[in-house]
Amino acid sequence: MATVTKKELITEISDKTGIKHADVALMLESFMEVAVNHLAAGDEITLRTFGTFDLRVAKGKLGRNPKLPQSEVMIPDRCVVRFRPSRELRSRAAVVPVHKVNAANGVNGM
After folding, report:
1. Which of 9, 14, 44, 109 is deepest in the core (most CB within 10 A)?
2. Which of 52, 43, 56, 37 is nearest to 83 (CA)?
3. Which pLDDT score is estimated for 68?
């Protein structure tokens, strides 16, 4: 398994649809910009067969500076983006062989 870049996605979508690379790039950039704006406004984004992006509050916690482990710093509550995959995406991911994922992540099988 490899990391797929935005450029590779654009090429694949362009090849599959016959739409020019520049037009696909513009659409993808526009989608990401609109999605970020909606999430920043606190909206939820649902793509039915893909999943849902929303904001959740990560509770504050006590943290430490690795360079000064004796000093404690309070990390405040903050909003984080959460992705919940759709049923379809979860079922398709469930059939991926575990050894492929382990190999991609550098995990030894035994």
Report:
1. 14
2. 52
3. 85
Tokens 């492929």 -> residue: 100
Helix (H) or strand (E) holding 15, with range, is helix 6-17
For residue 76, is it left (φ>0), alpha (ψ between -120 and 50) or beta? beta
Burial track 24-51 (b if 16+ CB lie within 10 A, e otherwise) = bbeeeeeeeeeeeeebeeeeebeeeeeb
Query: Which H helix or E strand runs over 72?
Result: strand 68-75
Q: Count Cα atoms within 13 angstroms, Cβ side, for 18.
A: 0
What residue ranges do the domains of the chain occupy?
1-43, 45-110
> Does this model's pTM top 0.90?
no
What band does 9 get if pLDDT is binned at 50, 70 and 90?
very high
Tell me the per-residue pLDDT of 44-62, one tens digit each, with 9 for 90 and over. 999 999 999 999 999 999 9
CA 6 to CA 4: how far, in whole Å?
Answer: 7
